[in-house]
């Protein structure tokens, strides 16, 4: 086993530097050896093999596909089921290295049943295991709506949102990344966050949910409209105004409301808030009604474009005539002044 671990370490050290070196390892039957070692009974050999496999697969899609063709994915899923924590960690990392490249590779990982075991790994108290599992789920979910839905079906929410507040900042960061990768495909993710907001009672879960809503709504008017249309703004205001809410929750509600309102052009959602939103949230910098009205005016202009074009043309002609008349009047005035000056000079003579 010591020889195997040493050999796997050498293969990993060679493959990690570049795709070209990793390809040399593959072409010299190094990948087959690594996959065989994934079936070894010794946990240390399994760990070294999974590590080497990840270093090969992470370079590009072609090498990751080669790893799948060699039968590595099913063995990596078995690594997630091992009792040794370090094997779970490296197994999840290698799965992430494979699935990150394309939809097809991620689908192969899903077909091998990896999502259920990655979701189970999230319940492990170890921060590194959580981080690698979250990263692997992110690498799967980022490719398409279908893969994101497959991740959601593993019932990882609202636990992922709770992990945003994890003491380990890396776990919190990767949790936010996973939430982003799921939500970016469609605005329907807002509906799920609205449900969490409605049903949850724990302040720390509500706080991270509110934070996620703010991060989504702050990007574009379309994102802000999706938040407003889901009737989330009134819920945020209610949580902010509730004296029983924690200070952290109130702060996040305040920030989320400002982030969404700054982008929101959805007048129907803004109007009911005018009488209820505190002045520290609703100010001239928060909601730019001029932009909302301008956008509405643009819509009306597009409807009335033909007659308005005619009106513009006529106004332009009238303005041109007015300018010509004004120029002529100025010229006549100049001539009159010159005549008066000539008369005055003659009188003096």
From TrEMBL:
<dbReference type="GO" id="GO:0003341">
    <property type="term" value="P:cilium movement"/>
</dbReference>
<dbReference type="InterPro" id="IPR011989">
    <property type="entry name" value="ARM-like"/>
</dbReference>
<dbReference type="Pfam" id="PF14712">
    <property type="entry name" value="Snapin_Pallidin"/>
</dbReference>
<dbReference type="InterPro" id="IPR000225">
    <property type="entry name" value="Armadillo"/>
</dbReference>
<dbReference type="GO" id="GO:0015630">
    <property type="term" value="C:microtubule cytoskeleton"/>
</dbReference>
<protein>
    <submittedName>
        <fullName>Sperm-associated antigen 6-like protein</fullName>
    </submittedName>
</protein>
<dbReference type="InterPro" id="IPR028119">
    <property type="entry name" value="Snapin/Pallidin/Snn1"/>
</dbReference>
<dbReference type="InterPro" id="IPR016024">
    <property type="entry name" value="ARM-type_fold"/>
</dbReference>
<dbReference type="GO" id="GO:0008017">
    <property type="term" value="F:microtubule binding"/>
</dbReference>
<dbReference type="Pfam" id="PF00514">
    <property type="entry name" value="Arm"/>
</dbReference>
């Amino acid at each position: 086993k010591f020889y195997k671990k040493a050999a796997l370490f050498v293969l990993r050290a060679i493959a990690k530097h570049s795709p070209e070196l990793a390809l040399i390892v593959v072409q010299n039957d190094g990948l087959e050896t690594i996959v065989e070692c994934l079936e070894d009974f010794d946990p240390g050999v399994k760990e070294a093999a999974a590590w080497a496999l990840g270093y090969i697969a992470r370079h590009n899609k072609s090498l990751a596909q080669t790893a799948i063709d060699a039968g590595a994915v099913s063995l990596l899923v078995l690594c997630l089921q091992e009792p040794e924590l370090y094997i779970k960690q490296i197994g999840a990392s290698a799965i992430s290295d494979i699935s990150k490249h394309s939809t097809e590779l991620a689908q192969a990982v899903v077909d091998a049943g990896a999502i259920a075991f990655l979701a189970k790994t999230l319940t492990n108290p170890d921060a590194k295991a959580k981080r690698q599992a979250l990263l692997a789920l992110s690498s799967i979910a980022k490719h398409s709506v279908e893969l994101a839905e497959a991740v959601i079906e593993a019932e990882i929410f609202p636990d992922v949102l709770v992990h945003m507040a994890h003491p380990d900042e890396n776990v919190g960061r990767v949790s936010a990344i996973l939430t982003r990768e799921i939500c970016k495909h469609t605005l329907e993710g807002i509906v799920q966050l609205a449900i969490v907001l409605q049903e949850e009672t724990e302040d720390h879960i509500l706080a991270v949910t509110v934070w996620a809503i703010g991060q989504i709504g702050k990007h574009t008017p379309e994102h802000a409209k999706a938040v407003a249309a889901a009737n989330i703004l009134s819920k945020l205001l209610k949580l902010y105004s509730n004296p029983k809410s924690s200070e952290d929750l109130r702060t996040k509600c305040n920030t989320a409301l400002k982030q969404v309102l700054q982008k929101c052009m959805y007048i129907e959602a803004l109007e009911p808030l005018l009488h209820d939103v505190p002045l520290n949230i609703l100010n001239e910098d928060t909601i730019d009604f001029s932009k909302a009205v301008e956008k509405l005016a643009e819509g009306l202009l597009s409807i009335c474009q033909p007659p308005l074009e005619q009106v513009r043309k006529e106004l332009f002609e009238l303005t041109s005539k007015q300018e010509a008349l004004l120029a002529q009047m100025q010229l006549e005035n100049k001539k009159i002044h010159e005549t008066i000056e000539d008369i005055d000079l003659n009188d003096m003579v």
